[in-house]
Amino acid sequence: MAARSFDSEQFLSWFEDAGGWYDKRLIGLSPFMGMGYGAVALDDIPVDSALFHVPDKLVLSSYTSELQSRLLPSEWDSLAHGWCQLILTMMWETIRGADSPWHGYLVNLPSDFETPMLWSEEERTELIGTDIEDRIGKEDAEADHRKYLGPVITAHPELFPAGSSHTTLSAFHLQGSRILSRSFTVPLSRFTRRHDAESDISDDDEEIQVAVMIPFADMLNAAFERDNVHLYADEESQNDHPEGFTMKSTKSIRKSTQIYNTYDSPPNSELLRKYGHVDVLPLPSDLLKLLDPSDVGDWPYGNAGDEVLIDGNCVVEAVAVALLDRADEIWRQSIPKRVDWWLEEGQDDIFALALSRELDTSLIAFVRLLSYDHEWLRAEKKGKLPSTEVDNFVLTVIDAVIRDRLARYDHDVEVDLALVKEAWPIVHPGDVIEAENFPVGATSIAANRLRQCYAAVVRLGEKRILKAIAHSISIGNGNGKKRKAEADDEQ
Ligand SMILES: C[S@@+](CC[C@H](N)C(=O)[O-])C[C@H]1O[C@@H](n2cnc3c(N)ncnc32)[C@H](O)[C@@H]1O
């Protein structure tokens, strides 16, 4: 995370004055190398201890702010796209300065992000081939700013003064990045039932989830499987606290160590896209055993939760190539029907491959559905999912998919390894490791180089998975001698 000015005293006194509570004996806020600020245990914390409480009224959202009441219902409804209502709310509360109930919170939010949304075009080329190459969404965000926020901002100069730096496109990206990396998703009914106590809450309302900003709860960092607290939504007011959210320890936490929340342990590509950081932790030995030594190099780190997403269209193309002349017009015409059937069965046509000894069974079944007419007929007539049996033809297709995906990256593993070592140097046995947070956060290397290193970590994690699968296939497919023949036999 880029350097950030955060005044913990100011933030904490705002939090308390505004009705928040925290246990001063147990939890404090302090900087952590490569992570910005985070929460630290000031004493040994037993499991199930309440660490802080955030009342609902302190949650910054389009439901708790007064902005909606200052706009026409039609204007408010016109903003019901993605995060537009919340972004405009955050812009307005920022413009209000000290008049905003969230002033002490907003002035302490970060203004610099390492998320690819804010990278230059050149920096983004480092992500070519990765899962996030096409998922950054910068252009969509720009269109939302112009189309939805623009008219409301222009119509209300009393709320959004002309020329304010808080309503520009870069302010839109800033608030969007804050939401992306710090928001929590909660049921909408949490806010609507208080304003509208008379009306019934339908099951649909219960299920609608909305993004909101929960001060203090968003000060916690996360790392793969290190979480030791959880944020609980109060069912009713407790211990003199009004209804809200309580952060409690889920494990005992040693004094002076970091208090971690969970971001659900996503792969590094997703961590980088949403949070602007990557997880770099020692990889478990059972995963390292799956990798070729040249792909590990002398850098046995990474994110054990990494994955690579394979698009079903790439699988269709690989099957077409492997089927040779059997991929005729009739076969082509049957493909949309086969894929629709697959989706209607609740299956996904994006396959998440992880570092594992086993091939992904869902991918195997999909390849068989596309390749073998008897599987398709059984699916169509009896509603049965294809078998997950692996044969040489299936291996040939998966091997082609993997190689095709590997060919999309611009750099090879050696380049990635050299880059990642710059930001996360190798820890040798016996090295003095500074605090318990190394090598989780990157060391302080130049900001422009850091982005290259983040991209290299993502590429390396993905390539390691792909190469491990390619390697296991080369062992398992008997050199592919029978590939075409088997496909013909099965048809
Ligand atoms: C919810 S905020 C946590 C508080 C934040 N560190 C701060 O100073 O305000 C999430 C951000 O913290 C940083 N972060 C969290 N976990 C991290 C980790 N394991 N390594 C590096 N940065 C991390 C990232 O910048 C991420 O976008």
UniProtKB/TrEMBL annotation:
<dbReference type="InterPro" id="IPR001214">
    <property type="entry name" value="SET_dom"/>
</dbReference>
<dbReference type="InterPro" id="IPR046341">
    <property type="entry name" value="SET_dom_sf"/>
</dbReference>
<dbReference type="InterPro" id="IPR036464">
    <property type="entry name" value="Rubisco_LSMT_subst-bd_sf"/>
</dbReference>
<dbReference type="GO" id="GO:0032259">
    <property type="term" value="P:methylation"/>
</dbReference>
<keyword id="KW-0489">Methyltransferase</keyword>
<protein>
    <recommendedName>
        <fullName>SET domain-containing protein</fullName>
    </recommendedName>
</protein>
<dbReference type="Pfam" id="PF09273">
    <property type="entry name" value="Rubis-subs-bind"/>
</dbReference>
<dbReference type="InterPro" id="IPR050600">
    <property type="entry name" value="SETD3_SETD6_MTase"/>
</dbReference>
<dbReference type="GO" id="GO:0005634">
    <property type="term" value="C:nucleus"/>
</dbReference>
<feature type="domain" description="SET">
    <location>
        <begin position="23"/>
        <end position="264"/>
    </location>
</feature>
<dbReference type="InterPro" id="IPR015353">
    <property type="entry name" value="Rubisco_LSMT_subst-bd"/>
</dbReference>
<dbReference type="GO" id="GO:0016279">
    <property type="term" value="F:protein-lysine N-methyltransferase activity"/>
</dbReference>
<keyword id="KW-0949">S-adenosyl-L-methionine</keyword>
<keyword id="KW-0808">Transferase</keyword>
